[in-house]
Amino acid sequence: MDGSVQLDLRGKRAVVTGGARGLGAAITRRLAGAGAAVHVVDVRREEAEKLCARLGEDGADVRFTPVDVRDPDEVAAAFREWEAASLQVDVLVNNAAVDVSKPIEHLSAEEVTRVVSTNLLGPMYLCLEAYRRMVARGGGHIVNILSTASNRTWTEAGPYSAGKSGLRAFTHTLFKEAQRDCLGVGVTGVIADGMATPFVLERFPDADTAKLQSPDIVADAVVYALSVPAGSVVPELVVVPRNEPSWP
Prior knowledge:
By secondary structure, the chain is of the alpha/beta class. 44% of the residues lie in helices and 16% in strands. The protein is built from seven helices and seven strands; from the N terminus they run βαβαβαβαβαβααβ. It has helices at residues 22-33, 45-57, 72-84, 109-137, 158-181, 198-201, 215-227; strands spanning 13-17, 37-42, 62-66, 91-94, 140-146, 185-192, 236-239. A seven-stranded parallel β-sheet has the order 3-2-1-4-5-6-7, sandwiched between helices. Helix 1 (22-33) packs across helix 7, helix 3 packs parallel to helix 4 (109-137) and helix 4 (109-137) packs parallel to helix 5. It starts with 12 loop residues before the first strand and ends in a 9-residue tail after the last strand.
């Protein structure tokens, strides 16, 4: 995609977790460019505030909301605060993720807990709060960022694959329940990998960047999923570089 997908989100409010940098920042920019007011949910205050300031200079309504998605109380409190201020969430993008690339025999319980709680439980907590409110209002859209690791795995990816596989299963279940509960609520899983982002390059500094795709391409895929006319929905999208070895 080249950014030609058109989407009008004026009057809508979006939440992007892990929105301070990398893919999350790319998604934040695209949603703000489409007119949405965006809450950047992250634990990286400095990076998030800089992003919000840059986009604010261009007239965008982008705000930083410090929330640790692993804490269900923090997640619930954020939604209560938005609701109290009459700030309904129309779009939720669960993007926040971490990884620990180690053989299973060298992993600690703390590392496993951190990866799975961030990549699986965190998105579930956000969905619990957003979904019931969207159903009550009769509309909204949830996008969960997945990975090729949700379909297959490789060495040193045990907790990450477990979390993403679980999130894919949860996303499929949520999609089916939305069909039953409220046809105005869309649910999409975006399987993305091979991106030139800090998430990849910090773990694999020797990666050949020529073989990686821009996170803007994946952000465009998110926009496409949100742009499908009422009556249709994209349950799942796969966006990987042409030479991505982990797909299919």
